[in-house]
Amino acid sequence: MGRWQARPATIIADPLGRLGLSEEQALLTPVKGAKRPSEQSEREGEAPLALPMEGATRAPVIVGKMNEKGMSFIEIMVAVAIIAVSATVAVPNYRQWAANSDLRDGFVNLKGALQIARVIAMGGGGGGNPVAVQLNNPANPVAVPVNNPVINYYVMFVDPNRNGQWDANEQILSAQGLPILPLVAGPLLPTTPGVQSFRTGVVFVAPPAVIAFLSSGRRSLPNVPANQIITLQNGFNLQRTVTVSAIGDIF
């Protein structure tokens, strides 16, 4: 009593060939013909099964940062160079496109003004008087003071004295052919209401001073049988022309 007594080893018998072994020895003795888990996994084409050791800790896993990459200085410089080359090609093309668009707009507006002037004259809007479109440019500074900057512009008006030039108090018409009031006493300037100008870079090229239409629709001024050609040009020397025939056709 009071003393520890040694426990006799238990002899186990099993059908796997470990007869006569103690319980501790049986647990440590591999079974004959048994395969290690790693060997069995490799033969079956699977990754070997790693069993954690007692007391081992699992390594931390970093999620979301393994595939993050930055840009090197060389990559940034290559991107800047590509952008610079693209801008060098795109900017001149854009400028030319914008200039051509301004020229097209000026052509459409001028042709429209001539057509409206003819319709008003034929409809009696001028009171039986010719309706004219005066074309003004630096080479033809009609009624513009010398000390004022001259730009390319045109104005539609009723011409009762039939001289083909706007005079003080003659009725100016808007781009839509509507009368502009009050009457302008003059002089006619690019900023005068009813005066229509082109966008920057679009100019007349030696145009006739005026195009006027009678109530019959025929062209009265210039009083010549030849067609009158009005040429517009932009900064890239691209031109558009409006032609007015003696019978008043506009094309």
Core attributes:
alpha+beta, 25% helix, minor pseudopilin epsh fold, elongated, 6-stranded antiparallel sheet, 3-stranded antiparallel sheet, single chain
Describe the structure in your own words.
The chain has 251 residues and is α+β, with helices and mostly antiparallel strands. It has a domain of 162 residues: minor pseudopilin epsh fold (3-Layer(bab) Sandwich). The chain contains three helices and eleven strands; from the N terminus they run ββαααβββββββββ. Strand 1 and strand 2 form a beta hairpin. About 6% of the residues have low confidence.
The overall average pLDDT, rounded, is 78
Structural class: alpha+beta
- Helix run count: 3
Distance between the termini: 134 Å
Assign a percent range to the helix content.
25-40%
Roughly what fraction of the amino acids lie in strands?
15-25%
Q: Radius of gyration, rounded?
A: 49 Å
Provide the CATH top-level class of the domain at 83-244.
Alpha Beta
Strand runs, count: 11
Succession of helices and strands: EEHHHEEEEEEEEE
Shape: elongated
Low-confidence stretches: 9-13, 141-150
CATH architecture call of the domain at 83-244? 3-Layer(bab) Sandwich
